[in-house]
Design brief:
340 residues, mainly alpha, Cytochrome Bc1 Complex, Chain D, domain 2, 3 domains, 46% helix
Amino acid sequence: MTRFPTAHFTKTFRANAAAVLAVLTVACGGSEPGLARGELLFDTCSPCHGDDGAGKEELGAPAIAGGSEWYLTEQLLKFRDGTRGYHHTDTEGLRMRPMSRALVEDKGDIESIVQYVVSLPIPDPPPTAEGGDAEAGEADYLELCVNCHGRDGRGMEIQKAPSLLHLNDWYMASSMRKYRDGVRGAGGDGFGALMRASMTGWTDERIDDVTAYIMTMQRLPRKVAAPPPPPLPPVDVDPAILPEGVTVAMAREGQEIFNGTTGICFTCHVREGVGGPLAPSLADDEWLNIDGEYESIVAIIIKGVEEPVEYPGMMQPRAGMPLSDEQVRAVAAYVFTLSR
């Protein structure tokens, strides 16, 4: 059982209680959802995150101005339902949980406060961390981070991967350590589990290197999606090699799901299933968990892989997406063709 000094506990309790009371006071008011209400609610956020939303290192509160609407909304919901801020050592997360729960959904509080935060100028926090080899960090970033956060660090909503370009270096390093140590990414957080797998076995030095590289990227991100990758040529396969009931049309549909925005298979297996540091290649004849036959591929997509044999990337059932049985069979058809 973790014990805190009485003075520390009292100070933290009073600060959190005062902040929650302030939120409740605003929430009970009659203002309509929208920017004006969000500005009023933000008065309870600014003591930690700053009036400009640029964050405060001494409080462990990150920059939130510059965050995407979808990401800010999801994080507030995760704090509220306990998916984030659940660990007894996550002081910052534990501070956020009561704040998120004081927001009144029926009054549009989350929508309003996110709308206001998104309206703030995007901060450009300067590097503050000492050390870190940006060149070594680039190699790790391109190998492990680029499939979700993008080559330019702008993030991808379909991967639930936020932009990294407005964040403080100390916050990014702290977050990676939390994922590595199991302080974040559990409690039912499926996409957080991917981050946990990515950070398995990382040393503090590697984390500092990647952080240093991210801080060299172009700052002040544009609030537009990163350009999509070039389209792949349609699957061209001899129908005679396909199992009974499997068609070329199914394989082509599976190709779009595997490599596109409907699914997230390429996050770990990389485009066209060539494999990467998180998951094995599907384009060879070596299978780690199954025999490689079509129905076995269908079954493993449905069930997932909780304990990978050689790679750190856990595969969630149906890739963590609401894939229908028909879509699963289409993806399996595509994967079947990759090694044939």
